[in-house]
Protein backbone atom coordinates (compact mmCIF):
# COMPACT_ATOMS: atom_id res chain seq x y z
CA UNK A 1 0.00 0.00 0.00
CA UNK A 2 2.84 2.38 0.92
CA UNK A 3 4.46 1.70 -2.45
CA UNK A 4 1.21 2.44 -4.26
CA UNK A 5 0.83 5.72 -2.37
CA UNK A 6 4.42 6.68 -3.22
CA UNK A 7 3.88 5.84 -6.89
CA UNK A 8 0.71 7.99 -6.93
CA UNK A 9 2.59 10.94 -5.40
CA UNK A 10 5.36 10.65 -7.99
CA UNK A 11 2.87 10.51 -10.86
CA UNK A 12 0.99 13.54 -9.56
CA UNK A 13 4.25 15.47 -9.14
CA UNK A 14 5.34 14.62 -12.66
CA UNK A 15 1.99 15.76 -14.04
CA UNK A 16 2.14 18.99 -12.06
CA UNK A 17 5.62 19.99 -13.21
CA UNK A 18 4.69 21.45 -16.64
CA UNK A 19 1.86 23.42 -15.06
CA UNK A 20 4.24 24.79 -12.44
CA UNK A 21 6.74 25.76 -15.10
CA UNK A 22 4.06 27.56 -17.08
CA UNK A 23 2.75 29.23 -13.92
CA UNK A 24 6.20 30.63 -13.20
CA UNK A 25 6.51 31.81 -16.77
CA UNK A 26 3.18 33.61 -16.56
CA UNK A 27 4.01 35.36 -13.29
CA UNK A 28 2.71 38.96 -13.32
CA UNK A 29 4.98 41.47 -14.97
CA UNK A 30 7.41 43.47 -12.83
CA UNK A 31 5.80 46.48 -11.16
CA UNK A 32 8.23 48.85 -12.87
CA UNK A 33 11.29 48.57 -15.11
CA UNK A 34 14.47 47.77 -13.19
CA UNK A 35 17.60 49.86 -13.73
CA UNK A 36 19.61 46.71 -12.94
CA UNK A 37 18.54 45.06 -16.20
CA UNK A 38 19.51 46.23 -19.68
CA UNK A 39 18.93 44.77 -23.12
CA UNK A 40 20.94 45.14 -26.32
CA UNK A 41 18.79 46.78 -29.00
CA UNK A 42 19.40 47.22 -32.75
CA UNK A 43 17.88 50.31 -34.41
CA UNK A 44 19.34 49.43 -37.81
CA UNK A 45 16.43 47.85 -39.73
CA UNK A 46 15.01 49.59 -42.81
CA UNK A 47 12.26 49.02 -45.38
CA UNK A 48 11.46 50.55 -48.79
CA UNK A 49 8.29 52.18 -47.47
CA UNK A 50 10.01 54.05 -44.64
CA UNK A 51 13.61 54.30 -45.83
CA UNK A 52 13.72 53.67 -49.58
CA UNK A 53 15.29 50.20 -49.36
CA UNK A 54 15.72 47.16 -47.16
CA UNK A 55 18.61 47.22 -44.73
CA UNK A 56 19.62 44.15 -42.69
CA UNK A 57 16.48 42.17 -43.51
CA UNK A 58 17.99 41.22 -46.88
CA UNK A 59 21.36 40.11 -45.52
CA UNK A 60 22.56 36.74 -46.82
CA UNK A 61 20.80 37.14 -50.16
CA UNK A 62 17.24 36.50 -48.94
CA UNK A 63 14.30 38.40 -50.41
CA UNK A 64 12.09 40.31 -47.94
CA UNK A 65 9.33 40.80 -47.07
CA UNK A 66 8.47 37.10 -47.40
CA UNK A 67 11.96 35.99 -46.36
CA UNK A 68 14.25 37.53 -43.75
CA UNK A 69 17.90 37.13 -42.78
CA UNK A 70 17.12 35.15 -39.66
CA UNK A 71 16.29 31.64 -38.57
CA UNK A 72 13.16 33.17 -36.98
CA UNK A 73 10.43 35.45 -38.37
CA UNK A 74 9.21 38.51 -36.42
CA UNK A 75 5.57 38.66 -35.33
CA UNK A 76 5.42 42.25 -36.61
CA UNK A 77 6.98 41.24 -39.93
CA UNK A 78 9.77 43.24 -41.54
CA UNK A 79 9.84 46.70 -40.00
CA UNK A 80 11.76 49.93 -40.05
CA UNK A 81 13.52 51.04 -36.89
CA UNK A 82 12.62 54.58 -38.00
CA UNK A 83 8.89 53.84 -37.66
CA UNK A 84 7.74 55.72 -34.56
CA UNK A 85 4.83 53.34 -33.93
CA UNK A 86 7.11 50.30 -34.09
CA UNK A 87 9.70 51.82 -31.77
CA UNK A 88 7.04 52.88 -29.27
CA UNK A 89 5.56 49.36 -29.25
CA UNK A 90 9.02 47.83 -28.77
CA UNK A 91 9.76 50.12 -25.83
CA UNK A 92 6.43 49.09 -24.31
CA UNK A 93 7.36 45.41 -24.62
CA UNK A 94 10.76 46.02 -23.03
CA UNK A 95 9.28 48.00 -20.12
CA UNK A 96 6.55 45.37 -19.65
CA UNK A 97 9.22 42.71 -19.18
CA UNK A 98 10.72 44.70 -16.28
CA UNK A 99 13.80 45.77 -18.24
CA UNK A 100 14.84 49.31 -17.39
CA UNK A 101 17.68 50.08 -19.80
CA UNK A 102 17.82 49.92 -23.60
CA UNK A 103 21.44 49.46 -24.71
CA UNK A 104 21.33 50.70 -28.28
CA UNK A 105 23.84 49.70 -30.94
CA UNK A 106 25.69 52.85 -32.05
CA UNK A 107 28.07 53.08 -35.01
CA UNK A 108 29.48 56.60 -34.74
CA UNK A 109 28.44 60.15 -35.49
CA UNK A 110 26.25 60.45 -38.57
CA UNK A 111 25.50 56.71 -38.79
CA UNK A 112 21.96 55.46 -39.32
CA UNK A 113 21.90 54.39 -35.67
CA UNK A 114 23.02 57.86 -34.58
CA UNK A 115 20.36 59.62 -36.67
CA UNK A 116 17.67 57.45 -35.09
CA UNK A 117 18.89 58.04 -31.54
CA UNK A 118 16.70 61.10 -30.70
CA UNK A 119 13.51 59.20 -31.58
CA UNK A 120 14.64 56.21 -29.53
CA UNK A 121 15.46 58.42 -26.54
CA UNK A 122 12.01 59.98 -26.63
CA UNK A 123 10.16 56.67 -26.94
CA UNK A 124 12.21 55.08 -24.17
CA UNK A 125 11.58 57.93 -21.77
CA UNK A 126 7.83 57.80 -22.41
CA UNK A 127 7.93 54.22 -21.11
CA UNK A 128 10.10 54.96 -18.09
CA UNK A 129 13.26 53.54 -19.65
CA UNK A 130 16.77 54.92 -19.81
CA UNK A 131 19.08 54.48 -22.79
CA UNK A 132 22.70 53.33 -22.77
CA UNK A 133 25.01 53.17 -25.79
CA UNK A 134 26.78 50.13 -27.18
CA UNK A 135 29.70 51.70 -29.06
CA UNK A 136 30.52 49.38 -31.95
CA UNK A 137 33.89 49.08 -33.75
CA UNK A 138 33.04 51.57 -36.51
CA UNK A 139 35.68 52.29 -39.15
CA UNK A 140 38.50 54.38 -37.67
CA UNK A 141 37.43 53.97 -34.05
CA UNK A 142 40.22 54.85 -31.60
CA UNK A 143 40.30 55.51 -27.88
CA UNK A 144 40.48 59.24 -28.65
CA UNK A 145 37.44 59.10 -30.94
CA UNK A 146 35.57 57.02 -28.36
CA UNK A 147 36.26 59.65 -25.71
CA UNK A 148 34.70 62.28 -28.00
CA UNK A 149 31.78 59.90 -28.65
CA UNK A 150 31.16 59.51 -24.95
CA UNK A 151 31.12 63.29 -24.45
CA UNK A 152 28.60 63.61 -27.29
CA UNK A 153 26.39 60.82 -25.96
CA UNK A 154 26.56 62.19 -22.42
CA UNK A 155 25.30 65.49 -23.79
CA UNK A 156 22.19 63.63 -24.98
CA UNK A 157 21.60 62.27 -21.47
CA UNK A 158 23.34 58.89 -21.83
CA UNK A 159 25.43 58.01 -18.79
CA UNK A 160 26.19 54.30 -19.33
CA UNK A 161 28.41 53.22 -22.22
CA UNK A 162 29.36 49.70 -23.28
CA UNK A 163 32.44 49.28 -25.49
CA UNK A 164 32.26 46.31 -27.85
CA UNK A 165 35.65 44.74 -28.69
CA UNK A 166 37.39 46.99 -26.17
CA UNK A 167 40.33 44.54 -26.07
CA UNK A 168 41.29 45.56 -29.62
CA UNK A 169 42.72 48.85 -28.30
CA UNK A 170 45.48 49.39 -25.68
CA UNK A 171 44.61 49.08 -22.00
CA UNK A 172 46.87 52.03 -21.15
CA UNK A 173 44.93 54.34 -23.49
CA UNK A 174 41.60 53.18 -22.05
CA UNK A 175 42.92 53.79 -18.53
CA UNK A 176 43.96 57.33 -19.40
CA UNK A 177 40.57 58.02 -20.99
CA UNK A 178 38.59 56.57 -18.11
CA UNK A 179 40.60 58.60 -15.60
CA UNK A 180 39.46 61.79 -17.34
CA UNK A 181 35.77 60.94 -17.62
CA UNK A 182 33.15 62.20 -15.18
CA UNK A 183 29.45 61.50 -14.87
CA UNK A 184 29.49 58.30 -16.92
CA UNK A 185 30.05 54.57 -16.37
CA UNK A 186 32.04 52.71 -19.01
CA UNK A 187 31.92 48.90 -19.38
CA UNK A 188 34.53 46.75 -21.11
CA UNK A 189 33.51 43.84 -23.31
CA UNK A 190 35.56 41.05 -21.74
CA UNK A 191 35.39 37.95 -19.57
CA UNK A 192 38.72 38.89 -17.96
CA UNK A 193 38.22 41.06 -14.89
CA UNK A 194 41.92 41.90 -14.77
CA UNK A 195 41.77 43.26 -18.31
CA UNK A 196 38.84 45.53 -17.45
CA UNK A 197 40.66 46.77 -14.34
CA UNK A 198 43.83 47.45 -16.34
CA UNK A 199 41.79 49.67 -18.66
CA UNK A 200 40.32 51.62 -15.76
CA UNK A 201 36.77 50.60 -16.67
CA UNK A 202 33.87 50.82 -14.24
CA UNK A 203 32.66 47.33 -15.06
CA UNK A 204 32.55 44.49 -17.57
CA UNK A 205 30.01 42.60 -19.67
CA UNK A 206 30.31 39.50 -21.85
CA UNK A 207 27.66 39.95 -24.60
CA UNK A 208 28.58 36.73 -26.43
CA UNK A 209 26.02 34.04 -25.52
CA UNK A 210 27.56 31.55 -27.93
CA UNK A 211 30.90 31.34 -26.12
CA UNK A 212 29.87 32.10 -22.54
CA UNK A 213 27.30 30.41 -20.33
CA UNK A 214 25.79 30.94 -16.89
CA UNK A 215 28.26 28.58 -15.25
CA UNK A 216 30.95 31.25 -15.74
CA UNK A 217 29.10 34.11 -14.06
CA UNK A 218 29.55 33.40 -10.33
CA UNK A 219 33.33 33.17 -10.74
CA UNK A 220 33.44 36.19 -13.05
CA UNK A 221 31.48 38.33 -10.60
CA UNK A 222 33.67 37.25 -7.67
CA UNK A 223 36.73 38.33 -9.62
CA UNK A 224 35.09 41.62 -10.58
CA UNK A 225 34.16 42.40 -6.96
CA UNK A 226 37.73 41.80 -5.83
CA UNK A 227 38.86 44.42 -8.34
CA UNK A 228 36.02 46.86 -7.45
CA UNK A 229 34.35 46.43 -10.84
CA UNK A 230 30.66 46.26 -11.66
CA UNK A 231 29.71 42.83 -12.98
CA UNK A 232 27.14 42.95 -15.82
CA UNK A 233 27.23 39.51 -17.49
CA UNK A 234 25.05 38.88 -20.52
CA UNK A 235 22.26 36.32 -20.68
CA UNK A 236 20.57 35.13 -23.85
CA UNK A 237 18.21 32.48 -25.19
CA UNK A 238 20.55 30.81 -27.67
CA UNK A 239 22.36 31.43 -30.96
CA UNK A 240 21.58 30.52 -34.57
CA UNK A 241 22.99 32.65 -37.42
CA UNK A 242 22.88 30.00 -40.16
CA UNK A 243 20.27 31.69 -42.34
CA UNK A 244 21.85 35.15 -42.12
CA UNK A 245 25.59 34.51 -42.17
CA UNK A 246 26.17 30.84 -42.86
CA UNK A 247 27.77 30.38 -39.43
CA UNK A 248 27.16 26.72 -38.65
CA UNK A 249 27.70 27.08 -34.91
CA UNK A 250 24.38 26.76 -33.06
CA UNK A 251 23.47 27.05 -29.41
CA UNK A 252 19.97 25.54 -29.15
CA UNK A 253 17.35 27.27 -27.03
CA UNK A 254 16.29 23.95 -25.47
CA UNK A 255 12.70 25.12 -24.99
CA UNK A 256 13.81 27.94 -22.70
CA UNK A 257 16.19 25.91 -20.55
CA UNK A 258 19.19 27.74 -22.01
CA UNK A 259 17.77 31.13 -20.99
CA UNK A 260 16.86 29.90 -17.49
CA UNK A 261 20.35 28.48 -17.00
CA UNK A 262 22.01 31.78 -17.85
CA UNK A 263 19.70 33.73 -15.57
CA UNK A 264 20.42 31.30 -12.71
CA UNK A 265 24.10 32.04 -13.21
CA UNK A 266 23.68 35.79 -12.80
CA UNK A 267 21.38 35.40 -9.78
CA UNK A 268 23.76 32.95 -8.07
CA UNK A 269 26.71 35.17 -8.92
CA UNK A 270 25.11 38.23 -7.36
CA UNK A 271 25.61 40.24 -10.55
CA UNK A 272 25.35 43.99 -10.08
CA UNK A 273 23.61 44.35 -13.44
CA UNK A 274 22.22 41.97 -16.03
CA UNK A 275 22.60 42.59 -19.75
CA UNK A 276 20.40 40.63 -22.17
CA UNK A 277 21.61 39.57 -25.63
CA UNK A 278 19.32 40.60 -27.24
CA UNK A 279 15.98 42.25 -27.94
CA UNK A 280 16.21 42.11 -31.74
CA UNK A 281 19.50 40.79 -33.12
CA UNK A 282 17.55 38.63 -35.55
CA UNK A 283 20.62 37.73 -37.64
CA UNK A 284 22.23 35.80 -34.80
CA UNK A 285 19.04 34.33 -33.41
CA UNK A 286 19.60 35.82 -29.95
CA UNK A 287 16.42 37.91 -30.01
CA UNK A 288 13.57 37.75 -27.50
CA UNK A 289 11.32 40.07 -29.53
CA UNK A 290 8.13 38.12 -30.40
CA UNK A 291 8.60 35.58 -33.22
CA UNK A 292 5.92 33.95 -35.39
CA UNK A 293 4.92 30.45 -34.41
CA UNK A 294 3.27 29.57 -37.73
CA UNK A 295 5.84 30.63 -40.32
CA UNK A 296 6.86 27.63 -42.42
CA UNK A 297 10.60 27.15 -42.87
CA UNK A 298 11.50 29.19 -39.79
CA UNK A 299 12.18 28.26 -36.20
CA UNK A 300 9.78 29.43 -33.50
CA UNK A 301 9.52 29.67 -29.73
CA UNK A 302 7.05 26.77 -29.65
CA UNK A 303 7.80 24.42 -26.77
CA UNK A 304 9.37 27.10 -24.58
CA UNK A 305 8.11 26.52 -21.04
CA UNK A 306 5.42 24.22 -22.43
CA UNK A 307 3.81 26.89 -24.59
CA UNK A 308 2.83 26.78 -28.24
CA UNK A 309 1.11 28.91 -30.86
CA UNK A 310 0.37 32.58 -30.08
CA UNK A 311 1.08 32.02 -26.37
CA UNK A 312 4.66 31.05 -27.22
CA UNK A 313 5.34 34.13 -29.35
CA UNK A 314 5.97 36.32 -26.30
CA UNK A 315 7.39 33.51 -24.15
CA UNK A 316 10.86 35.02 -23.74
CA UNK A 317 9.59 38.46 -22.79
CA UNK A 318 7.23 36.87 -20.26
CA UNK A 319 9.99 34.70 -18.83
CA UNK A 320 12.25 37.75 -18.56
CA UNK A 321 9.65 39.37 -16.30
CA UNK A 322 9.77 36.29 -14.09
CA UNK A 323 13.56 36.46 -13.79
CA UNK A 324 13.59 40.21 -13.19
CA UNK A 325 11.23 39.65 -10.28
CA UNK A 326 13.55 36.92 -8.97
CA UNK A 327 16.53 39.25 -9.29
CA UNK A 328 14.81 42.13 -7.48
CA UNK A 329 13.66 39.87 -4.65
CA UNK A 330 17.23 38.66 -4.24
In short:
The chain has 13 helices and 11 strands. The protein is α/β, with parallel strands linked by helices and 330 residues long. β3 (130-135), α6 and β4 form a beta-alpha-beta unit.
Q: Describe it for me?
A:
It is built from 13 helices and eleven strands. It has 330 residues and is α/β, with parallel strands linked by helices. It has one domain: Glycosidases (TIM Barrel). The strands form two sheets. Strands 7-6-5-4-3-2-1-11-8 form a nine-stranded parallel β-sheet. Strands 9-10 form a two-stranded antiparallel ribbon. α3 crosses α5 (117-126) and α11 (257-268) runs parallel beside α13. Residues 1-25 have low confidence and may be disordered.
| Count of spatially separate domains | 1
Stated plainly, the CATH topology is called TIM Barrel
Order of helices and strands: HEHHEHHEHEHEHEHEEEHEHEHH
Shape: globular
User: Using only CA atoms, what is the Rg?
Assistant: 20 Å
- The amount of helix comes to 25-40%
In the CATH hierarchy, the architecture is: Alpha-Beta Barrel
- Please outline the major beta sheet: 9 strands, parallel
Proportion of β residues?
Answer: 5-15%
Average pLDDT number:
92
What structural class results from the helix and strand content?
Answer: alpha/beta
Count of DSSP strands: 11
Amino acid sequence: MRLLRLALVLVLAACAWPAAAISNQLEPRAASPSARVGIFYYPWFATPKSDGRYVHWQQGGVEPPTDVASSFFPVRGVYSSADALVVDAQMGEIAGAGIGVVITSWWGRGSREDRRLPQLLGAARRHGLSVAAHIEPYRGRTVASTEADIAYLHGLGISDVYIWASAELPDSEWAAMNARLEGVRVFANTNLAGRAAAGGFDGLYTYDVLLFDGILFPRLCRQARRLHLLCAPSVGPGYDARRATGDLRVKPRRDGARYDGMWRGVVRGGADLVTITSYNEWHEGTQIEPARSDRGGYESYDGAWGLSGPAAETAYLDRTAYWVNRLIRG
